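Re: LLGJG24Q structure - here you go.
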Amino acid sequence: MAGRIEDYALIGDMQTAALVSRDGAVDWLCLPRFDSPAVFAGLLGTDEHGFWRIGPAEPVSAPAGATVPAPPAARSAFTDSGAIPIPPTAAAPAVPADRRRYRGDSLILEQEWDAQGGTVRVIDFMPPRPLAGLDAVPQMIRIVEGVSGKVRMRSALRMRFSYGRVVPWVHRVEQPDGGHRTVAVAGPDSVWLDGVAETYGRDLTTYADFTVEAGERIAFALTWQASHLPAPAAPDAEAMLADTVEFWRDWVGQCTYQGPYREPVVRSLITLKALTYAPTGGIVAAPTTSLPEDIGGERNWDYRYTWLRDAAITLSSLLRTGYREEARAWREWLLRAVAGDPENLQIMYGIAGERELTESELDWLPGYEGSQPVRVGNGAAGQLQLDVYGEVVEALHLAHMTGLTRNDHAHLLQLKLITYLEQHWREPDEGIWEVRGPRRHFVHSKVMAWVAVDRTIKLIEQTPAEGPLERWKALRDEIHRDVCEKGYDADRNTFTQYYGGQELDASLLLIPQVGFLPPDDKRVIGTIEAIQRELSTEDGFVLRYPTHDDDGNNVDGLSGHEGAFLACSFWLADDLAMIGRVAEARELFEKLLSLRNDVGLLAEEWDSRAQRQVGNFPQAFSHVPLIDTALRLTACAGAYLSAQPDGREREQATL
Ligand SMILES: OC[C@H]1O[C@H](O[C@H]2O[C@H](CO)[C@@H](O)[C@H](O)[C@H]2O)[C@H](O)[C@@H](O)[C@@H]1O
């Protein structure tokens, strides 16, 4: 059974990613791309749906309920050593590592067990893949390293293609040097296992039992190849490790952020890079599908696609921390994806710009802790969400302002988007939260329409780009007036979720951040205070909107509740800093940092009742605001230091 969401660490090669549990099991891996069917889908079901666990065969202290390690009957060498008799269903021992971490600022995971006989380390990574050529195939490398003593280990590999549905045909391929490879084939996929350890099959699972001594390193490699193509070369694991170390050293070396939050910022940047599909520049919202927002409920979605909103804000964070190449690549992706008539702009696309993201349910998967359905595809692709025009234009604007090489097509696209928005901003939409209830006049959507027009006016004023400047200035004023008249409740001194509504919405926290109103405007302060009052969880985080009305009826078309939305909680910290409540902002930010798991990763939401992470994982939409808030608080600290040379702590508004 899958562990808690925070028990997982991410490894990836910028084309796909895997989740590795603290017990040494890879429970999620889609091959060859982020959005391909999973080869290991144990995360959303059981071990029967695929996993690959490497860990000690005999840990010192197995927790209650852990599978007792035992030798398979077919292997005499192991049986001769006098190990415990095997229960017929035992696949592999599942015992949490005693320690784990990423190797420095990289995506190379190291887990260590103090086991019977000594200490052992397993190093897991996926080498960044070349974009073309024979070796442009996904690989997962697992190096078992003896740290001290002598430890008996087991690798248990159960491949189940097509999200746990298909048992592949697995066979050995003898090699001229006397060694062998193991290959699993079904339909379009083949997956090759290489390693020096002897393997054997039992219960439709491939095992290797071996011993590792201090200083010894035993490598395994899994390589995917289209099944109609010749066998891929067996990778040189140690050379791949050296290349991967160098790749991350170079990449992290470009980071311009040097403030007090360097560790969480860099880990978030590495995570965002891992979610970027290198061949096209598309960015997935998360590498998983259907990790529930409500454990046991139906709020389960496929995030392995590129949302314009999520990608645009990711781009902004990358640009502000020195990463221009990713920004340039995403701009190219955007231009290709939206090519054609902006009337047909989708709010999300596949990672290569695909438009067909039809949603369906995988009824053979039980779901994470029974959370059904498991969905692939995403019906939100067909929604109207007017805010994405604002987010995209804002990202293009920032790219321009930070000196990214001029691109006339991007300018042209921006002008076309505004021409579309001019005709459609008055319409109701599904809004930033993609609610599956009725369309409404969401205030956040209108605010972001204002952002799109505002930034385009600035583009025209600052560059040779041309457009009907006066007409668009009038449009900008009209949208502003409309929002302030219809989206603001003067009696309660707060903006509301939608025109004429009573509910609040945490996306309103963005009003001062995008410059729609200044932070010291009484309506802004009133809205921040109302959100703090009405949308806070008992532990001080923020819900994005109330999921139920006063009579207990669901308002977003879905049953159940959801956790605090981490992005919104970071936005609150930002706003508090903007209105001068810097100490409070910092306290909230640090509380948010404490929700990260031990390797620095955040899901989409936090379940305050269960005190655990929920939703897809790791989530770009959580790591981006983490970076943004860190930058703001760092700027606050800088302003503070220059204003307070004696170093005494005092709150002050800096923005
Ligand atoms: O919870 C309801 C909606 O959840 C998803 O949308 C959320 O994730 C998106 C990607 O990070 C984000 O852009 C959006 O703002 C979030 O609400 C899901 O994709 C939707 O289908 C679902 O209705």
